[in-house]
Amino acid sequence: MKLAVLSDIHGNLEAFVQSLDDMKDQKIDGIVNLGDAVGYGPQPEEVLNLLEKKGIPNILGNHELAVLDKKNSDNFSPPALRALEQTLKYVTAASMRYLKNLPTYRKIEGALMVHGCPPDSPTDYLNHMSRSEIREIFIETDFNIAFVGHTHRMMLAGYDGKDLRFDPMQEDTVQLKSKYRYIVNVGAVGQPRDGDPRAKYVIWDSDRKILQIRRVGYNVDRVIALIKERGFLRRDAERLLPGIYPIGGKFINWQLRTDNQIKMLKKGEKYWLKLSWHMPPCCLE
Ligand SMILES: [Fe+2]
Q1: Per the omega criterion (within 30 degrees of 0), is the bond before 119 cis?
Q2: Domains in the chain with CATH codes
Q3: How far is the CA of 118 from the centre of ligand 1 (A)?
Q4: Is the pLDDT of residue 250 over 70?
Q5: How far is the centre of ligand 1, averaged over its atoms, from the C-alpha of 179 (Å)?
Q6: What pLDDT, on the 0 to 100 scale, is given for residue 245?
Q7: Distance (Å, rounded) from C-alpha 56 to C-alpha 60?
Q8: Which residues lie at CB < 5 A from ion ligand 1?
Q9: Above 60 in pLDDT, residue 216?
Q10: How far apart are CA 67 and CA 99, in angstroms?
């Protein structure tokens, strides 16, 4: 079975539609979305309607939880709260009913699908965890493969019962090995934070044990114009173009490095930080 796994559309209908278009040539058998269909982007209602219309299985992300109950936005930054207020203006009562019925996880083709962290957390960030905490997740669960989103950055974690391996998935395809169990972070369709503005998703070929990484260009300018027109935050428009995460006037580039080195480069007035997968980004989220 070839399953397209996507996550974090974040109200970006343009990126979602282009990703669906990209799937037409990939001979896929199904699609699943791992939550955060709403938040930040200008067309939350349209994205939810299209997911429903196409019958794409979906799950709860932290942004859906916040839309359903503002008490779930306690850990949101002030700009994320502003984006939530704006999102609530566009989501209809019918879509709220749809969101209420979403599960926190699904099992499809033997794979665990969850927004943040196995086994069922829509909110925990895997890239805030230490190696031993990630190892514990593998030890305490029994999935062979789990798919997550939430960080907006692709990453593959493999565990062979002893060692952990990480791969930032920068190739076009990844061959999975039978002796490993995996957690696959599929990145983000609607708001990438990996330095590449294209929409990302993964096609999992469960028979051939292959991950195919898809990177899809779309009309970012059109989305930026709509973000402004619909009263969403300028910050959320600005961060679509470079595909990075602007903090306090500086730009933090989350290019992942496998050698665990940290490098700071001065580039004009901007600072570019290259952080490893395990640098706790607590001050940056
Ligand atoms: Fe997200």
Answers
A1: yes
A2: 2-216 (3.60.21.10)
A3: 16
A4: no
A5: 31
A6: 56
A7: 13
A8: 8, 36
A9: yes
A10: 9
